[in-house]
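### Sample
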Amino acid sequence: MQNHIPIPSSTSSTIKLLQIAIAVMGIWLLLHSWVLTQQQGKLLLQQQSSQLMRETLTALSHTAAYLIEHDELDGLEQLTQHIAASPYLYDVVVYDANGVRMSWSENSAPARLLYGPNQKEQLQAMVQPITKDQQLLGYMKLSLRLDTSLNQISMSWQQLMQQLLGMLILAGAVGFLLRRGFSRLSRQSLRLRGPKS
């Protein structure tokens, strides 16, 4: 007399289909979480770059104020070109208090062209008043490149995310192989024991 009752094949098929559905849902959730993490990291890097550039721009406006106050236009031109040499910036313009351009970099163009839909690069305009003893001397405007691939930290972040994706794939493959191995072991042990009478 047998003590075990075989599971009907329809029930076994339903369980297997349910397991596959749960596995597919798990893979989708992991990949979705990975994409969201990558996007959040990119946004944080852009915010950090903007904050650092804002602080740098404030410091540079003090230098520009000194140069404007002492009528050193050559020095102002050199400062503009030096700032514009940064790979993180697209253009730099210094205006006087009336909005007339005093110094500008090579890529300088009207705002409708720089920030319009036809511009290939995504740019963020930053404007800093140039003041001395609360007197307005002018404005400094720069266009920050939002392409985080220019950032060394961003490149390290991308490498880290690729490693994480590789680990997720490896973990999935190891889990699949372990499941198959345990499944075969359990089937072999059942065969070796044989039916109980």
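Helices lie at 9-69, 73-84, 111-114, 152-193. This sample (AhpA/YtjB family protein) is used throughout the tutorial notebook.
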